[in-house]
Structure formats: C-alpha cells, structure tokens
Amino acid sequence: MDETWLRPLVWTDYRLAVMFTVIVPIILLIWALVRQSDAILRLLIIYWRVASLLMITVYLMIPSWSIGYITSFAARLLIPISLWFWVDLNDEIKDLPQTSLKFALTSWRWAVTIYSSLGAIASLPFLSCAFSKGATETPFCRVWLEAPWRFKEIFHANSTPGFLGFVGMVGLIVYTVYFTYFLFIRLGKQGRAALEQ
Q1: Structural domain contains residue 196
Q2: Are 79 and 112 in contact (CB under 8 A)?
Q3: Burial of 94 (0-12, 13-18, 19+ CB in 10 A)
C-alpha cells in the first residue's frame, strides 16, 4: 500500500486527537472547576482516567512496540463508552440549566463520540500491525509511529525509546489493574452509577 496518501490522513488524525481528546477537555475541565459544576467535573475526571490510555499508547509506540496498535484501538472504543455509560451523570447533566458550559460539554461529547467511533472503524486494518511479525517495519504500520517519534523529539530528546516504552508499559499495567478492578469489583457493586464509594 502506498503510504503517500496515508501519511496526511494519519497526521490529521493525530491533530484531531490532540484537539478533541486533550485541548477541548482541558478547557471544559477548567470551565467546570470555575463554575463548580459537580456532575460535569465527575464526568471529565472519569474521561481523563479512561483517556490516559491514549498517552500510554504514545509511549508504547515510541519504541515501535506493536501493543500500541491494540491500546490505540481500545482507547477509541473506551472513550465514548466512558462519556455515556453513567446513568446518574447523564441524568444530572440533562437536568442542569441550559448554559454555555452544558452546551459545550454536550457538543464535545457527541463530537468525540463520533470521532472515536469512526477512528476505531478506520483503525481496524492497522490491528494487523500488532499481530504480524515484522509488520512495524512496513510503511503501512510505520506511518502511525511518526507522530510518537516527533513527540519524543520535542519532549524527551534525551531519553531512550526503550526507557519511554518501559514507562508506557508500567502505565499500561497500572491501567489494566485498575480497569480489571473496575470491571470485576466496582461495577458489580455500583452498576452504572458514577458515585464514589
């Protein structure tokens, strides 16, 4: 496959990811803190816990570890779920008075849900990069590594890819332990309620 048409699409995806999954939610979080909107704050805290898998993915891709393709796909699935899963938060947010913050949050929830869902579908062919031996050396797979390598150049110029991959793997282990705890213990106790126990 010719990567000349693929590269601009991949870089566009990374730019959209930064906009929809980092910049906008940071603005919303600060806005919710200023407005002291408890329901929106709780939703955004849950979002950031789930979306941290995207940053873990970047660190796993820096040393070209194929597991990064799997975590990227998983993050795209989990982010929209985390935004709509909580019955109590959905009800609280729905009952909030119409404000610009509520409108911005609702618009962002729908935008990131559509973006993540389409991204998950579009990334399905790239899951082969995680399961085929030597696939990360092909242009088809390597194009997804260029942005993480650029991130390393900007923020971690003096660190080795192996060390940054290790940081990513530690993050993935912690994430997996917490996610397993949530699925098998916390979800059974509180169901789809986001109230802290």
Answers
A1: no
A2: yes
A3: exposed
